Amino acid sequence: MTRFLSPIKVLLFIALMIPLGIIVFDGFQNNLTADPIEELLHRTGIWSLRLLLLTMLMTPMKVITGSFVFIRVRRMIGLFAFFYASLHLLIYVWLDLGLDWAHLLEDIIERTFITVGMLAWLLMLPMAITSNKRMMRKLGKTWKRIHQAIYLVICLASLHFIWLVKSDITEPLIYTGIGLSLLLFRVAHHYHGKRSKHKGSTNTG
């Protein structure tokens, strides 16, 4: 299984780097529209949201197929979601605000979509830091609680996108719908698992 996963992880790493490669290429080609900072913010933000959803999709895929491959690549996808979210934040703070920390604090307090976006990133930070196996073993049950925050992150990221868009909210609503569907699947699967365990213990008794 490990030998099988190695090439998959290499290919996945390359695939997850492609959006960044396209962004860099378009930057050198001056293909980042009339407002390059806005375009950079949009692309990095949307890829972070997509990869968050893809991370959530790994558990349903494992349940449906019975393959643990999806669980073993989930960490890399989640880390890339954090990577693109961090690029998104860096572009905003550095290129858009010019490292004006007072302006940043003002935006966080006064602009709701900035508030929820920053909160989403702050929740992703401990998940990224504790994503390795050593931290998983060290933290025990606390690790699971930390990483369950992904559901709240998805909600906050979706709200960030919806409140950011000033006109057509079709695209953010599509991503929100996907996130809610994945969340409902997880809740239904958890409930079904608890019922199965209860029936098993009842039959045994």
UniProtKB/TrEMBL annotation:
<dbReference type="GO" id="GO:0020037">
    <property type="term" value="F:heme binding"/>
</dbReference>
<keyword id="KW-0285">Flavoprotein</keyword>
<protein>
    <recommendedName>
        <fullName>Protein-methionine-sulfoxide reductase heme-binding subunit MsrQ</fullName>
    </recommendedName>
</protein>
<keyword id="KW-1133">Transmembrane helix</keyword>
<feature type="transmembrane region" description="Helical">
    <location>
        <begin position="76"/>
        <end position="95"/>
    </location>
</feature>
<comment type="function">
    <text>Part of the MsrPQ system that repairs oxidized periplasmic proteins containing methionine sulfoxide residues (Met-O), using respiratory chain electrons. Thus protects these proteins from oxidative-stress damage caused by reactive species of oxygen and chlorine generated by the host defense mechanisms. MsrPQ is essential for the maintenance of envelope integrity under bleach stress, rescuing a wide series of structurally unrelated periplasmic proteins from methionine oxidation.</text>
</comment>
<keyword id="KW-0349">Heme</keyword>
<dbReference type="GO" id="GO:0005886">
    <property type="term" value="C:plasma membrane"/>
</dbReference>
<dbReference type="GO" id="GO:0010181">
    <property type="term" value="F:FMN binding"/>
</dbReference>
<feature type="transmembrane region" description="Helical">
    <location>
        <begin position="45"/>
        <end position="64"/>
    </location>
</feature>
<dbReference type="Pfam" id="PF01794">
    <property type="entry name" value="Ferric_reduct"/>
</dbReference>
<dbReference type="GO" id="GO:0009055">
    <property type="term" value="F:electron transfer activity"/>
</dbReference>
<feature type="transmembrane region" description="Helical">
    <location>
        <begin position="111"/>
        <end position="129"/>
    </location>
</feature>
<feature type="transmembrane region" description="Helical">
    <location>
        <begin position="149"/>
        <end position="166"/>
    </location>
</feature>
<feature type="transmembrane region" description="Helical">
    <location>
        <begin position="7"/>
        <end position="25"/>
    </location>
</feature>
<dbReference type="InterPro" id="IPR022837">
    <property type="entry name" value="MsrQ-like"/>
</dbReference>
<feature type="domain" description="Ferric oxidoreductase">
    <location>
        <begin position="44"/>
        <end position="157"/>
    </location>
</feature>
<keyword id="KW-1003">Cell membrane</keyword>
<keyword id="KW-0249">Electron transport</keyword>
<dbReference type="InterPro" id="IPR013130">
    <property type="entry name" value="Fe3_Rdtase_TM_dom"/>
</dbReference>
<keyword id="KW-0408">Iron</keyword>
<dbReference type="GO" id="GO:0016679">
    <property type="term" value="F:oxidoreductase activity, acting on diphenols and related substances as donors"/>
</dbReference>
<dbReference type="GO" id="GO:0030091">
    <property type="term" value="P:protein repair"/>
</dbReference>
<keyword id="KW-0472">Membrane</keyword>
<keyword id="KW-0288">FMN</keyword>
<comment type="similarity">
    <text>Belongs to the MsrQ family.</text>
</comment>
<feature type="transmembrane region" description="Helical">
    <location>
        <begin position="172"/>
        <end position="189"/>
    </location>
</feature>
<keyword id="KW-0813">Transport</keyword>
<keyword id="KW-0479">Metal-binding</keyword>
<dbReference type="GO" id="GO:0046872">
    <property type="term" value="F:metal ion binding"/>
</dbReference>
<comment type="subunit">
    <text>Heterodimer of a catalytic subunit (MsrP) and a heme-binding subunit (MsrQ).</text>
</comment>
<keyword id="KW-0812">Transmembrane</keyword>
